[in-house]
Write a structure and sequence with these properties.
This protein is α+β, with helices and mostly antiparallel strands. 33% of the residues lie in helices and 22% in strands. The chain contains eleven helices and 19 strands. It has a six-stranded mixed beta sheet with strand order 8-7-11-6-1-19, with helices on one face. Strands 15-16-14-18-17 form a five-stranded mixed beta sheet. Strands 2-5-12-13 form a four-stranded antiparallel beta sheet. Helix 2 (127-142) packs across helix 3.
Length: 415
């Protein structure tokens, strides 16, 4: 076997947004949560991580590049994922290239990893979730690991808790588990992305800067100081999770919206109940909530659910495309782009919704009238950076075309 070969795999993994929130760990090292959580996977066409992993006898050490910059792999979370996957590696043979890797060779061989997010990192859009899920999924394919997605999710969980939920499409539940070793803390798919394909999602990216309080330290402070968190984990979430599963199964949007909004608000209440208090939402976030609440009330039944993770960005889930088009008109009236912006970079993702909203260009945005339920709505240009239009999506996939890889197939270095 020549020493020059490079073996590579490239995968694409979606991000996910929790509708029943994960906030608080009972074990920091293994990343075991204090409660179950449920999320919706977002369409990877609009929000995903692409990761290429390569192995070669020529590599001197494990190395990783994120969005083009080399980063250290010495952190415990990366090391846990690499160790757990290597433990499960099996024999790999590529007859075409004349490569054979024995099971025991994996301990000695080094890896190169390149990862790219098509959305802002660490700005409250679950980039670490997609990232660790993609790393584990790609390595599992490279190393011929036989574990299924649920078992892989327990490894991804050790990189980033919510990463375990990105190993499936549709709606996903992270079961908190009872075992001390975390073996039963893993993700399962509740329904796939086709089950409720009426839903349409608009994300208002209020700020794509990195957040002041990372989720990791925020959670730790909440667990240590918030009495509300203890009550939430013990009394509220177990009941709410069952109700949410039922709402998803029955495609009952009224119940789904009520539960989603309530759980988001309680999560942010826990942040405020933490000492010192943590503020993830800002004035724009609050204004968006107020607009949605007014509209839902005026319609008599919910048209839109809102949920916010550890950041100010609003994730707005509309009951169907018609409601999404109405929502987009309301959002563009209140949060128009700055005068020098163009609509094409202000609305990204699934742009077909613009046509349904009757908005073709900036002139149409300027001509929008205030929503009837909110006649006094103020225009706040520049308060939203941009909107992402998307929908529930599928789980991780392997990309077979070598040209889309992020590493050079000859050298194993970034292209």
């Amino acid at each position: 076997m020549g020493e020059k070969w490079v073996l590579m795999k490239t995968a694409q993994t979606p991000t996910n947004i929790a509708v029943i929130k994960y906030w608080g760990k009972r074990d920091e090292t293994l990343i075991l949560p204090v409660n179950d959580s449920i999320s919706v996977t977002l369409d990877p066409a609009h929000l995903c991580t692409t990761t290429t992993v390569a192995v070669s006898p020529a590599f001197q050490q494990d190395r990783m590049w994120l969005n083009g910059k080399e980063i250290s792999l010495s952190g415990g979370r990366y090391q846990n994922c690499l160790r757990e996957i290597r433990k499960r590696a099996r024999e790999v043979e590529d007859k075409e290239k004349g490569i054979k890797i024995e099971k025991e060779d994996w301990e000695k061989l080094h890896l190169h990893i390149a990862s790219y997010n098509n959305f802002p990192t660490a700005a409250g859009l679950a980039s670490s979730a997609a990232g660790f899920a993609c790393l584990v999924f790609a390595l599992a394919k490279l190393m011929n690991v036989e574990e299924d997605e649920s078992q892989l999710s327990a490894i991804a969980r050790q990189g980033s808790g919510s990463a375990c939920r990105s190993l499936f499409g549709g709606f996903v539940k992270w079961i908190m588990g009872k075992e001390e070793d975390g073996s039963d803390s893993l993700a399962v798919q509740l329904v796939d992305e086709k089950h409720w394909d009426d839903l349409f999602i608009i994300i208002a990216v209020v700020s794509s800067r990195q957040k002041e309080t990372s989720s990791t330290s925020g959670m730790r402070e909440s667990v240590e100081t918030s009495l509300l968190l203890q009550h939430r984990a013990k009394e509220v979430v177990p009941k709410r999770t069952l109700q949410m599963e039922e709402a998803i199964k029955n495609r009952d949007f009224a119940s789904f919206a009520k539960l989603t909004c309530a759980d988001s608000n309680q999560f942010h209440a826990v942040c405020l109940d933490t000492s010192p208090p943590i503020f993830y939402m800002n004035d724009t976030s609050h204004r968006i909530i107020s607009h949605v609440e007014k509209w839902n009330r005026s319609e008599g039944s919910p048209q839109v659910a809102y949920t916010f993770d550890a950041g100010p960005n609003a994730v707005l889930i509309a009951r169907d495309r018609k409601a999404a088009a109405q929502l987009l008109k309301r959002l563009l009236f209140s949060f128009p782009p700055n005068s020098d912006a163009d609509l094409d970079s202000y609305i990204i993702g699934d742009k077909t919704i613009l046509k349904e909203a009757g908005v073709e260009g900036m002139k149409d945005v300027e001509a929008l009238s205030p929503p009837p339920e909110n006649g006094a709505a103020q225009k706040c240009p520049g308060d939203v950076n941009y909107f992402i239009c998307t929908r529930p999506g599928k789980g991780p996939i392997l990309l077979s075309n070598e040209n889309v890889g992020l590493l050079d197939p000859e050298t194993g270095l970034p292209k």
